[in-house]
Amino acid sequence: MKFFTKLRYSFLAIMERWKQSHALRKCKRNYPEFKEETEYDNGEYKFIWGVKSPDDLCQAPACLHTMNDIDIIYSREKKRYILSIETAYWFETQEGVVEYLQSLLKHFTKFMDEQGYDKNAEYRFWMSQPSLLLEEENIPELYTNFKIFVEGYTKVYIEHKVVQYL
Questions:
Q1: CB 3.0 to 4.6 Å from 83: which of 27, 57, 134, 157, for a disulfide?
Q2: CA 17 to centroid of chain Cα atoms
Q3: How far apart are CA 124 and CA 54, in angstroms?
Q4: Coil, strand or helix: which one is 148?
Q5: Which residues pair with residue 80 across a beta bridge?
Q6: What pLDDT, on a 0 to 100 scale, did the predictor assign at position 127?
Q7: Do the Cβ atoms of 42 and 64 come closer than 8 Å?
Q8: SS3 category, 91
Q9: What is the pLDDT of residue 166?
Q10: 41-49: long-range contacts at Cβ-Cβ below 8 A with a sequence spacing of 24 or more?
Q11: 81 near 73, Cβ under 8 Å?
Q12: Residue 123: is its pLDDT beyond 80?
């Protein structure tokens, strides 16, 4: 019985290595700029920038495998930049949420300045079905959407005191 169990696990290990090498070859074929899988690039997704969460206990800098408060990832398949923010925090007041979002916007603004990106990209309204998707074709448009979200959120929940935080 042990022989068949060992045989099964060795076969599964061989199949897993084959699937990984096949996926790696496929990524190299489909995305010529992809060199090898790292914590910053796994083929379909490429880590662009991020601010690591203080709750992440690993020693690695911000990357695809860390918990980041805010990060930008490029999807090669979609050819779009994706912004994500950590929302698994509990805040006692709405002001805490606003402070958190504004601090993320400051980090993003600093990144934009350091990289020399335009912080005044136009929000495309004409025939665009307005929404604040945090997924765009370029980083300046991503920044504009996030800025609209943060400033709008601040205006609605703090300046107008529309809803009490539960």
A1: 134
A2: 28
A3: 35
A4: helix
A5: 75
A6: 60
A7: yes
A8: coil
A9: 45
A10: 43/76, 44/75, 44/76, 44/77, 45/73, 45/74, 45/75, 45/76, 46/73, 46/74, 46/76, 47/71, 47/72, 47/73, 48/72, 48/73, 48/74, 48/81, 48/139, 49/111
A11: yes
A12: no
pLDDT band at 115 (very low <50, low <70, confident <90, very high): very high
Each domain of the chain, given as residue ranges in start order, spans: 31-159
**Residue pLDDT, tens place only, 28-85:** 777 777 677 778 888 788 999 999 998 888 888 999 989 999 999 999 888 899 999 9
Write out the two tokens for 92: 């006692």
Provide the token pair at 128.
């665009």
| The two structure tokens encoding residue 140 | 């300046």
In angstroms, what CA-CA distances link 104 with 1, 73, 86, 166? 56, 16, 10, 22
Rounded CA separation 128/85 (Å): 24
Could you give the CA distance from residue 93 to residue 35 in angstroms, rounded to a whole number?
46
Kindly state the tokens that stand for 12. Answer: 């599964």
